[in-house]
Amino acid sequence: MTILAYDLGASSGRALLGRLNNGKIEVEELHRFPNDPVQVGDRLQWDILRLLHELKQGLLKAKHRGIKLDSIAIDSWAVDFGLIGSNGELLGNPYHYRDHHTDGVMEEVALELTASRIFEKTGIQFLPFNTIYQLAALKKADSPLLRDAKHFLMIPDLLRYFLTGEMFNEFSNATTTQLYNPISGSWDESLIRAIGISPDLFGTVVKPGARVGSLRQSVCEELGIQSVPVYAAAEHDTGSAVAAVPALDRSFAYLSCGTWSLMGTEVQEPVINELAQQLNFTNEGGAYGTYRLLKNIMGLWILQECRRSWERAGISYTFPELVKLANDAKPFAAFIDPDDPLFLHPGDMPARVAEYCLRTGQTPPADTGAIVRCILESLALKYRFVLELTEKLSGHTFSGLHMVGGGIQNTLLCKWTANAIGKPVWAGPVEGSAIGNMIVQWIASGKLADIWEARKVIRESFPVEVYEPEQHEAWEKAYVAFKEKTGIA
Question: Is there a cis peptide before residue 429, judged by omega within 30 degrees of 0?
Protein backbone atom coordinates (compact mmCIF):
# COMPACT_ATOMS: atom_id res chain seq x y z
CA MET A 1 0.00 0.00 0.00
CA THR A 2 1.51 3.34 -1.11
CA ILE A 3 0.12 6.64 0.07
CA LEU A 4 1.01 10.25 -0.66
CA ALA A 5 1.44 12.93 2.00
CA TYR A 6 1.67 16.56 0.98
CA ASP A 7 3.42 18.51 3.73
CA LEU A 8 3.42 22.26 3.14
CA GLY A 9 5.58 24.48 5.31
CA ALA A 10 5.97 28.24 5.40
CA SER A 11 9.05 28.10 3.17
CA SER A 12 8.84 24.83 1.22
CA GLY A 13 6.57 21.96 0.38
CA ARG A 14 7.09 18.24 -0.07
CA ALA A 15 5.24 15.32 -1.59
CA LEU A 16 6.34 12.15 0.20
CA LEU A 17 5.46 8.55 -0.51
CA GLY A 18 4.71 6.33 2.46
CA ARG A 19 4.82 2.55 2.51
CA LEU A 20 4.07 0.21 5.41
CA ASN A 21 6.10 -2.98 5.05
CA ASN A 22 6.51 -5.67 7.72
CA GLY A 23 5.61 -3.28 10.51
CA LYS A 24 8.05 -0.59 9.36
CA ILE A 25 7.34 2.76 7.72
CA GLU A 26 9.31 3.66 4.61
CA VAL A 27 9.29 7.29 3.47
CA GLU A 28 10.50 8.49 0.08
CA GLU A 29 10.60 12.07 -1.10
CA LEU A 30 8.83 12.26 -4.45
CA HIS A 31 8.78 16.02 -5.05
CA ARG A 32 10.07 19.10 -3.23
CA PHE A 33 9.33 22.71 -4.10
CA PRO A 34 9.77 26.23 -2.68
CA ASN A 35 6.86 28.05 -1.07
CA ASP A 36 7.79 31.69 -1.35
CA PRO A 37 5.23 34.38 -0.50
CA VAL A 38 4.78 37.18 -3.00
CA GLN A 39 4.77 40.90 -2.19
CA VAL A 40 2.13 42.70 -4.27
CA GLY A 41 2.07 46.41 -3.43
CA ASP A 42 1.58 46.60 0.33
CA ARG A 43 0.26 43.05 0.63
CA LEU A 44 2.14 39.82 1.33
CA GLN A 45 0.28 36.88 -0.19
CA TRP A 46 0.60 33.16 -0.80
CA ASP A 47 1.01 31.96 -4.39
CA ILE A 48 -1.77 29.44 -3.90
CA LEU A 49 -2.19 28.43 -7.54
CA ARG A 50 1.53 27.69 -7.78
CA LEU A 51 1.07 25.39 -4.78
CA LEU A 52 -1.79 23.63 -6.58
CA HIS A 53 0.48 23.26 -9.61
CA GLU A 54 3.17 21.66 -7.42
CA LEU A 55 0.65 19.23 -5.91
CA LYS A 56 -0.19 18.15 -9.45
CA GLN A 57 3.51 17.70 -10.23
CA GLY A 58 3.67 15.24 -7.35
CA LEU A 59 0.83 13.25 -8.86
CA LEU A 60 2.51 13.32 -12.28
CA LYS A 61 5.81 12.08 -10.84
CA ALA A 62 3.98 9.16 -9.22
CA LYS A 63 2.30 8.41 -12.56
CA HIS A 64 5.58 8.53 -14.51
CA ARG A 65 7.13 6.04 -12.11
CA GLY A 66 4.16 3.70 -12.40
CA ILE A 67 3.21 4.12 -8.74
CA LYS A 68 -0.39 3.33 -7.84
CA LEU A 69 -1.50 5.58 -4.99
CA ASP A 70 -4.02 4.27 -2.46
CA SER A 71 -4.80 7.62 -0.83
CA ILE A 72 -3.72 11.25 -0.44
CA ALA A 73 -3.79 13.80 2.40
CA ILE A 74 -2.49 17.35 2.91
CA ASP A 75 -1.15 19.23 5.92
CA SER A 76 0.07 22.84 6.11
CA TRP A 77 0.57 25.83 8.37
CA ALA A 78 -2.45 27.22 10.23
CA VAL A 79 -4.56 30.43 10.42
CA ASP A 80 -4.47 31.47 6.73
CA PHE A 81 -7.44 30.95 4.42
CA GLY A 82 -9.12 31.57 1.09
CA LEU A 83 -12.64 32.78 0.38
CA ILE A 84 -14.82 31.17 -2.30
CA GLY A 85 -17.47 33.11 -4.22
CA SER A 86 -20.93 32.04 -5.35
CA ASN A 87 -19.51 30.71 -8.63
CA GLY A 88 -17.19 28.37 -6.75
CA GLU A 89 -14.06 30.33 -7.61
CA LEU A 90 -11.37 31.67 -5.30
CA LEU A 91 -11.69 35.36 -4.46
CA GLY A 92 -8.12 36.67 -4.41
CA ASN A 93 -4.86 35.16 -3.21
CA PRO A 94 -4.81 34.29 0.49
CA TYR A 95 -2.95 36.80 2.65
CA HIS A 96 0.21 35.68 4.43
CA TYR A 97 -0.03 35.67 8.22
CA ARG A 98 3.00 37.98 8.38
CA ASP A 99 1.21 40.67 6.34
CA HIS A 100 0.77 44.00 8.08
CA HIS A 101 -3.00 44.28 7.54
CA THR A 102 -3.62 42.84 11.02
CA ASP A 103 -1.39 45.35 12.81
CA GLY A 104 -3.21 46.56 15.94
CA VAL A 105 -6.37 44.56 15.19
CA MET A 106 -5.90 41.95 17.92
CA GLU A 107 -5.74 44.68 20.56
CA GLU A 108 -8.89 46.34 19.20
CA VAL A 109 -10.88 43.09 19.06
CA ALA A 110 -9.68 41.90 22.47
CA LEU A 111 -10.72 45.24 23.97
CA GLU A 112 -14.12 45.29 22.28
CA LEU A 113 -15.06 41.64 22.91
CA THR A 114 -12.88 41.27 26.05
CA ALA A 115 -9.94 38.89 25.99
CA SER A 116 -11.41 36.70 28.72
CA ARG A 117 -14.56 36.07 26.67
CA ILE A 118 -12.54 35.12 23.58
CA PHE A 119 -10.30 32.74 25.53
CA GLU A 120 -13.19 31.23 27.48
CA LYS A 121 -14.93 30.34 24.23
CA THR A 122 -11.91 29.11 22.24
CA GLY A 123 -8.97 28.35 24.56
CA ILE A 124 -6.63 29.73 21.90
CA GLN A 125 -3.44 31.73 22.42
CA PHE A 126 -3.57 35.41 21.48
CA LEU A 127 -1.42 35.95 18.39
CA PRO A 128 -1.81 38.98 16.11
CA PHE A 129 -2.20 36.89 12.95
CA ASN A 130 -4.92 34.52 14.21
CA THR A 131 -7.73 34.04 11.70
CA ILE A 132 -10.20 35.99 13.83
CA TYR A 133 -8.03 39.11 13.51
CA GLN A 134 -7.40 38.55 9.80
CA LEU A 135 -11.15 38.44 9.19
CA ALA A 136 -11.73 41.43 11.49
CA ALA A 137 -9.08 43.34 9.51
CA LEU A 138 -10.87 42.55 6.23
CA LYS A 139 -14.16 43.68 7.75
CA LYS A 140 -12.59 46.90 9.06
CA ALA A 141 -11.19 47.62 5.58
CA ASP A 142 -14.62 46.91 4.01
CA SER A 143 -12.95 44.33 1.80
CA PRO A 144 -14.93 43.32 -1.30
CA LEU A 145 -13.68 39.79 -0.64
CA LEU A 146 -16.03 39.53 2.33
CA ARG A 147 -18.94 41.06 0.48
CA ASP A 148 -18.71 38.39 -2.22
CA ALA A 149 -17.62 35.40 -0.12
CA LYS A 150 -19.82 32.33 0.32
CA HIS A 151 -17.34 29.84 1.79
CA PHE A 152 -14.33 30.00 4.14
CA LEU A 153 -11.59 27.42 3.53
CA MET A 154 -8.23 27.17 5.27
CA ILE A 155 -5.16 26.38 3.17
CA PRO A 156 -5.43 22.54 3.16
CA ASP A 157 -9.23 22.83 2.86
CA LEU A 158 -8.74 25.07 -0.17
CA LEU A 159 -6.21 22.83 -1.90
CA ARG A 160 -8.41 19.79 -1.21
CA TYR A 161 -11.32 21.67 -2.77
CA PHE A 162 -9.27 22.38 -5.89
CA LEU A 163 -8.44 18.68 -6.16
CA THR A 164 -11.79 17.14 -5.19
CA GLY A 165 -14.50 19.75 -5.66
CA GLU A 166 -15.65 19.06 -2.07
CA MET A 167 -15.69 21.70 0.69
CA PHE A 168 -14.96 20.72 4.29
CA ASN A 169 -13.26 22.44 7.21
CA GLU A 170 -10.85 20.16 9.09
CA PHE A 171 -10.86 20.09 12.89
CA SER A 172 -7.21 20.64 13.88
CA ASN A 173 -6.89 23.67 11.61
CA ALA A 174 -10.34 25.01 12.49
CA THR A 175 -9.37 25.20 16.15
CA THR A 176 -6.45 27.54 15.35
CA THR A 177 -8.79 30.24 14.00
CA GLN A 178 -9.84 31.41 17.50
CA LEU A 179 -13.40 31.06 16.19
CA TYR A 180 -14.01 27.40 17.07
CA ASN A 181 -15.51 26.45 20.42
CA PRO A 182 -13.99 23.15 21.69
CA ILE A 183 -16.62 22.86 24.42
CA SER A 184 -19.60 22.95 22.03
CA GLY A 185 -17.57 21.20 19.31
CA SER A 186 -18.59 23.70 16.65
CA TRP A 187 -17.91 27.13 15.21
CA ASP A 188 -18.69 29.83 17.78
CA GLU A 189 -21.36 31.84 15.99
CA SER A 190 -21.46 34.54 18.67
CA LEU A 191 -17.78 35.39 18.13
CA ILE A 192 -18.12 35.21 14.36
CA ARG A 193 -21.07 37.61 14.41
CA ALA A 194 -19.27 39.88 16.90
CA ILE A 195 -16.56 40.63 14.33
CA GLY A 196 -19.20 41.31 11.68
CA ILE A 197 -18.85 38.06 9.70
CA SER A 198 -21.67 35.75 8.63
CA PRO A 199 -21.54 32.29 10.26
CA ASP A 200 -22.85 30.94 6.94
CA LEU A 201 -19.30 31.15 5.55
CA PHE A 202 -18.15 28.34 7.84
CA GLY A 203 -18.87 24.78 6.80
CA THR A 204 -18.93 21.27 8.20
CA VAL A 205 -15.96 20.43 10.43
CA VAL A 206 -14.53 16.95 9.87
CA LYS A 207 -12.10 15.07 12.11
CA PRO A 208 -8.70 13.70 11.06
CA GLY A 209 -9.19 10.41 9.29
CA ALA A 210 -12.42 11.39 7.54
CA ARG A 211 -12.65 10.61 3.85
CA VAL A 212 -13.29 13.96 2.18
CA GLY A 213 -13.62 13.02 -1.47
CA SER A 214 -11.62 11.71 -4.41
CA LEU A 215 -9.64 13.40 -7.15
CA ARG A 216 -12.18 15.16 -9.36
CA GLN A 217 -12.67 14.13 -12.97
CA SER A 218 -11.14 17.30 -14.41
CA VAL A 219 -7.89 16.73 -12.47
CA CYS A 220 -7.75 13.08 -13.54
CA GLU A 221 -8.32 14.00 -17.19
CA GLU A 222 -5.74 16.81 -17.07
CA LEU A 223 -3.04 14.55 -15.59
CA GLY A 224 -4.08 11.28 -17.23
CA ILE A 225 -4.45 9.44 -13.92
CA GLN A 226 -7.03 7.39 -12.06
CA SER A 227 -9.02 8.92 -9.21
CA VAL A 228 -7.60 8.45 -5.71
CA PRO A 229 -9.35 8.73 -2.30
CA VAL A 230 -8.51 11.88 -0.35
CA TYR A 231 -8.47 11.89 3.47
CA ALA A 232 -8.31 14.69 6.00
CA ALA A 233 -5.13 14.34 8.01
CA ALA A 234 -4.55 16.39 11.12
CA GLU A 235 -4.20 19.19 8.62
CA HIS A 236 -2.44 21.68 10.84
CA ASP A 237 1.15 20.52 10.32
CA THR A 238 1.82 20.72 14.06
CA GLY A 239 -1.16 18.43 14.66
CA SER A 240 0.41 15.92 12.29
CA ALA A 241 3.86 16.40 13.85
CA VAL A 242 2.52 15.69 17.34
CA ALA A 243 0.70 12.60 16.06
CA ALA A 244 4.12 11.36 14.92
CA VAL A 245 5.90 11.87 18.27
CA PRO A 246 7.32 8.41 19.08
CA ALA A 247 6.44 8.64 22.75
CA LEU A 248 6.25 5.58 24.98
CA ASP A 249 4.57 7.39 27.90
CA ARG A 250 1.04 8.77 27.65
CA SER A 251 2.25 11.97 29.29
CA PHE A 252 5.02 13.60 27.28
CA ALA A 253 6.38 16.99 26.25
CA TYR A 254 7.14 17.80 22.62
CA LEU A 255 8.78 20.48 20.53
CA SER A 256 7.87 20.66 16.85
CA CYS A 257 10.85 22.53 15.52
CA GLY A 258 11.05 24.38 12.20
CA THR A 259 10.25 27.86 10.95
CA TRP A 260 8.06 28.00 14.06
CA SER A 261 8.73 26.18 17.31
CA LEU A 262 5.69 24.78 19.08
CA MET A 263 6.12 23.34 22.53
CA GLY A 264 3.60 21.65 24.76
CA THR A 265 1.96 18.40 25.75
CA GLU A 266 -0.95 16.27 24.55
CA VAL A 267 -4.13 16.35 26.64
CA GLN A 268 -7.54 14.70 26.34
CA GLU A 269 -9.55 17.84 27.15
CA PRO A 270 -8.76 21.52 26.51
CA VAL A 271 -7.31 23.39 29.48
CA ILE A 272 -9.31 26.63 29.59
CA ASN A 273 -8.77 28.49 32.82
CA GLU A 274 -7.38 31.75 34.14
CA LEU A 275 -3.81 30.44 34.37
CA ALA A 276 -3.84 29.19 30.78
CA GLN A 277 -5.01 32.62 29.59
CA GLN A 278 -2.48 34.39 31.79
CA LEU A 279 0.35 32.26 30.38
CA ASN A 280 -1.07 32.71 26.84
CA PHE A 281 -1.17 28.99 26.08
CA THR A 282 -3.32 27.51 23.36
CA ASN A 283 -5.55 24.43 23.03
CA GLU A 284 -5.36 23.29 19.42
CA GLY A 285 -7.15 20.23 18.14
CA GLY A 286 -5.13 17.08 17.55
CA ALA A 287 -5.68 13.64 16.11
CA TYR A 288 -8.14 11.18 17.62
CA GLY A 289 -9.83 13.18 20.32
CA THR A 290 -6.70 14.89 21.65
CA TYR A 291 -5.80 18.54 22.18
CA ARG A 292 -2.39 20.14 21.95
CA LEU A 293 -1.79 22.30 25.01
CA LEU A 294 1.08 24.36 23.68
CA LYS A 295 2.73 27.70 23.15
CA ASN A 296 4.05 29.17 19.90
CA ILE A 297 7.69 30.27 19.86
CA MET A 298 9.09 32.25 16.91
CA GLY A 299 11.53 29.48 16.02
CA LEU A 300 14.14 29.25 13.29
CA TRP A 301 12.35 31.95 11.27
CA ILE A 302 14.75 34.48 12.77
CA LEU A 303 17.79 32.57 11.51
CA GLN A 304 16.16 31.90 8.13
CA GLU A 305 15.44 35.59 7.69
CA CYS A 306 19.01 36.50 8.72
CA ARG A 307 20.28 34.15 6.02
CA ARG A 308 18.03 35.83 3.44
CA SER A 309 19.37 39.24 4.52
CA TRP A 310 22.96 38.08 4.07
CA GLU A 311 22.08 36.62 0.66
CA ARG A 312 20.60 39.95 -0.42
CA ALA A 313 23.93 41.50 0.56
CA GLY A 314 25.71 38.99 -1.69
CA ILE A 315 26.95 36.66 1.07
CA SER A 316 25.66 33.10 0.89
CA TYR A 317 25.89 30.63 3.76
CA THR A 318 24.63 27.09 4.05
CA PHE A 319 22.93 26.24 7.35
CA PRO A 320 25.80 23.89 8.32
CA GLU A 321 28.24 26.77 7.73
CA LEU A 322 26.17 29.02 9.98
CA VAL A 323 26.05 26.36 12.70
CA LYS A 324 29.85 25.99 12.59
CA LEU A 325 30.30 29.76 12.89
CA ALA A 326 27.93 29.76 15.87
CA ASN A 327 29.79 26.92 17.55
CA ASP A 328 33.05 28.86 17.27
CA ALA A 329 31.57 32.11 18.66
CA LYS A 330 31.77 33.26 22.28
CA PRO A 331 29.00 31.71 24.43
CA PHE A 332 26.29 33.69 26.19
CA ALA A 333 27.47 37.08 24.88
CA ALA A 334 23.95 38.43 24.20
CA PHE A 335 20.33 37.27 24.35
CA ILE A 336 17.07 38.05 22.57
CA ASP A 337 13.48 37.12 23.33
CA PRO A 338 12.59 35.27 20.09
CA ASP A 339 8.94 36.21 20.58
CA ASP A 340 9.49 39.96 20.64
CA PRO A 341 7.21 41.60 18.00
CA LEU A 342 10.35 43.06 16.42
CA PHE A 343 11.06 39.65 14.88
CA LEU A 344 7.59 38.88 13.46
CA HIS A 345 7.69 40.53 10.03
CA PRO A 346 10.16 39.95 7.17
CA GLY A 347 13.08 42.37 6.95
CA ASP A 348 16.70 43.01 7.92
CA MET A 349 16.85 40.53 10.79
CA PRO A 350 20.55 40.98 11.68
CA ALA A 351 19.83 44.68 12.18
CA ARG A 352 16.83 43.81 14.33
CA VAL A 353 18.92 41.52 16.53
CA ALA A 354 21.32 44.43 17.03
CA GLU A 355 18.42 46.81 17.69
CA TYR A 356 16.99 44.46 20.34
CA CYS A 357 20.36 44.17 22.09
CA LEU A 358 20.85 47.94 22.16
CA ARG A 359 17.31 48.42 23.48
CA THR A 360 18.00 46.00 26.34
CA GLY A 361 21.41 47.40 27.26
CA GLN A 362 23.49 44.65 25.65
CA THR A 363 26.39 44.83 23.22
CA PRO A 364 25.11 43.66 19.81
CA PRO A 365 26.73 40.57 18.26
CA ALA A 366 29.73 41.68 16.23
CA ASP A 367 29.76 39.15 13.39
CA THR A 368 27.75 36.41 11.69
CA GLY A 369 28.75 33.63 14.07
CA ALA A 370 27.90 35.74 17.11
CA ILE A 371 24.47 36.59 15.66
CA VAL A 372 23.67 32.94 14.96
CA ARG A 373 24.90 31.87 18.39
CA CYS A 374 22.76 34.56 20.02
CA ILE A 375 19.68 33.29 18.16
CA LEU A 376 20.23 29.58 18.87
CA GLU A 377 21.16 30.02 22.53
CA SER A 378 18.16 32.30 23.04
CA LEU A 379 15.85 29.73 21.43
CA ALA A 380 17.21 26.95 23.66
CA LEU A 381 16.73 29.09 26.78
CA LYS A 382 13.22 30.14 25.68
CA TYR A 383 12.40 26.44 25.26
CA ARG A 384 13.35 25.89 28.90
CA PHE A 385 11.13 28.77 29.98
CA VAL A 386 8.12 27.43 28.05
CA LEU A 387 8.75 23.83 29.19
CA GLU A 388 8.59 25.00 32.80
CA LEU A 389 5.31 26.81 32.08
CA THR A 390 3.96 23.66 30.40
CA GLU A 391 4.76 21.63 33.51
CA LYS A 392 3.13 24.25 35.73
CA LEU A 393 -0.04 24.40 33.65
CA SER A 394 -0.43 20.67 32.98
CA GLY A 395 0.55 19.53 36.47
CA HIS A 396 3.04 17.05 35.00
CA THR A 397 6.82 16.91 35.34
CA PHE A 398 8.43 15.59 32.18
CA SER A 399 11.55 13.43 32.16
CA GLY A 400 12.75 14.84 28.86
CA LEU A 401 11.67 16.49 25.62
CA HIS A 402 10.70 14.95 22.27
CA MET A 403 11.88 17.11 19.35
CA VAL A 404 10.50 16.47 15.86
CA GLY A 405 10.64 18.30 12.55
CA GLY A 406 13.24 19.70 10.20
CA GLY A 407 14.83 21.83 12.91
CA ILE A 408 16.32 18.76 14.57
CA GLN A 409 18.84 18.59 11.71
CA ASN A 410 20.47 21.49 13.56
CA THR A 411 22.31 19.25 16.02
CA LEU A 412 23.75 22.24 17.86
CA LEU A 413 20.24 23.46 18.69
CA CYS A 414 19.29 19.97 19.94
CA LYS A 415 22.42 19.80 22.08
CA TRP A 416 21.94 23.27 23.51
CA THR A 417 18.26 22.56 24.19
CA ALA A 418 19.22 19.53 26.30
CA ASN A 419 21.77 21.71 28.13
CA ALA A 420 19.24 24.47 28.69
CA ILE A 421 16.43 22.27 30.05
CA GLY A 422 18.82 20.03 32.01
CA LYS A 423 17.03 16.94 30.67
CA PRO A 424 17.48 14.54 27.76
CA VAL A 425 16.27 15.52 24.31
CA TRP A 426 14.98 12.72 22.07
CA ALA A 427 15.23 13.99 18.48
CA GLY A 428 13.33 12.33 15.65
CA PRO A 429 11.76 11.85 13.23
CA VAL A 430 12.80 14.71 10.93
CA GLU A 431 9.75 14.47 8.66
CA GLY A 432 7.37 14.48 11.62
CA SER A 433 4.48 16.30 9.95
CA ALA A 434 4.52 14.10 6.85
CA ILE A 435 4.75 10.90 8.91
CA GLY A 436 1.87 12.06 11.12
CA ASN A 437 -0.09 12.73 7.93
CA MET A 438 0.65 9.20 6.77
CA ILE A 439 -0.35 7.41 9.96
CA VAL A 440 -3.77 9.08 9.90
CA GLN A 441 -4.28 7.70 6.38
CA TRP A 442 -3.22 4.21 7.50
CA ILE A 443 -5.46 4.30 10.57
CA ALA A 444 -8.36 5.49 8.41
CA SER A 445 -7.83 2.61 5.99
CA GLY A 446 -7.49 0.04 8.79
CA LYS A 447 -3.78 -0.70 8.31
CA LEU A 448 -2.99 0.57 11.83
CA ALA A 449 -5.29 0.15 14.82
CA ASP A 450 -4.83 3.49 16.56
CA ILE A 451 -2.39 6.31 17.27
CA TRP A 452 -0.51 4.36 19.96
CA GLU A 453 0.16 1.45 17.65
CA ALA A 454 1.24 4.02 15.05
CA ARG A 455 3.66 5.69 17.49
CA LYS A 456 5.19 2.30 18.32
CA VAL A 457 5.70 1.64 14.60
CA ILE A 458 7.24 5.10 14.15
CA ARG A 459 9.69 4.46 16.99
CA GLU A 460 10.71 1.17 15.43
CA SER A 461 11.02 2.70 11.95
CA PHE A 462 13.10 5.83 12.53
CA PRO A 463 16.22 6.47 14.61
CA VAL A 464 15.87 8.71 17.66
CA GLU A 465 19.00 10.68 18.55
CA VAL A 466 19.48 11.16 22.29
CA TYR A 467 21.15 14.33 23.58
CA GLU A 468 22.12 14.25 27.24
CA PRO A 469 22.48 17.56 29.12
CA GLU A 470 25.97 18.94 29.74
CA GLN A 471 27.59 22.04 31.28
CA HIS A 472 24.84 22.36 33.87
CA GLU A 473 26.32 25.22 35.89
CA ALA A 474 27.11 27.40 32.87
CA TRP A 475 23.62 26.99 31.41
CA GLU A 476 21.97 27.67 34.77
CA LYS A 477 23.84 30.98 34.96
CA ALA A 478 22.93 31.71 31.35
CA TYR A 479 19.24 31.11 32.09
CA VAL A 480 19.30 33.66 34.91
CA ALA A 481 21.05 36.17 32.61
CA PHE A 482 18.61 35.41 29.75
CA LYS A 483 15.56 36.17 31.90
CA GLU A 484 17.21 39.31 33.28
CA LYS A 485 18.20 40.72 29.86
CA THR A 486 14.94 39.86 28.09
CA GLY A 487 12.64 40.70 30.97
CA ILE A 488 10.60 37.50 30.64
CA ALA A 489 9.16 36.08 33.86
Answer: yes
